[in-house]
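I'd like us to work through together how a protein chain folds, taking it slowly. To get us started, please write out a protein record for me. Go ahead whenever you are ready, and we will take it from there:
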Amino acid sequence: MKNIIVDAMGGDLAPQQIVYGALDAVNEDKDVKVTLVGKKDAIDGLLAEQKYSGDRIFVIDAQDVITNDESPTMAIKLKKESSLVKAFEALMSDGDAFVSCGATGAVLVGAFMKVGRIKGVSRPALAPMLPTLTGGRVILCDCGANVDCKPVHLAHFAIMASAYATAMLGVEKPRVGLLNNGVEEHKGSELAKEAYEKLKTLDGINFVGNCEARDILSGDFDVVVADGFNGNIALKSTEGAAGAVVKLILDGVNNGGLRAKLGALLLKPVLKSVKKTMDYNAYGGACFLGVNKVVVKSHGASKRKSVAASILQAKELADRNICEDIKRGIINYNSTAQEE
């Protein structure tokens, strides 16, 4: 049974939605237990209102909270009684994986400082899973943890994200693309060109070429590798575009009169299917690849459905020993690089 440590005070809807999500997770999977870290009185009050298996939910008291407005490094160093710091301590003491909806910067700094990176990993990276037009999922790595990168970092991202795709998506040879401003090999910045050369000769990686931003969700890739700056822009642009399209459709229906409303009624099953496919709540969180234990950062506005998905995602990754798979891939790459 895996013990998933959850920062119960992180996120816009904490602690209520975090606690409810934890309850949903233990009710769905009998082989998972959850340790909630946060204000014990508030958590106990929420638990008392629900029916759950009491032997698989535990609470660690932590009266302080790290917010988005604080310096991540200083907060991790100084706020020893915060739910985030105490959750990382619990992870290293008796945990198998970690989930937080809290401040992204603090989660990443905390993971780096408290958990530590896997030996040989040049840079840990944040890797969310996004829905594709074909009904599958694609992993974007990195989406913001590393603004400035070198080609070796992108090679490591490809190795780590490929192991992640195999574990979570069940793809034996994940198709890896490099985010670029064109599909041609000669396109892009110096970083993109040098990374392309590394990726196309990288043993064990199924590199299929450059990926333009418009094709991230096409279903033609299982992994898209990027530096954190461009990856974050691509992620936010995708989210913004999806939200804008939904708003335009709703505005068109509301302002289009009877004919528009009748058309929307006929299309309701299709629209519901699209909404379900694009709903981030169903896909869990972004895994912080390259640290010594499983760390999952869920969306700050996550509701119980997304929290539960993140907990079960973290449990599955721990079951599959994703950190060991990454370690082996990095060791093989670094030994080959030294021989060259």
Summary: Residues 228-255 form the longest helix (28 residues). The chain has a mean pLDDT of 91.
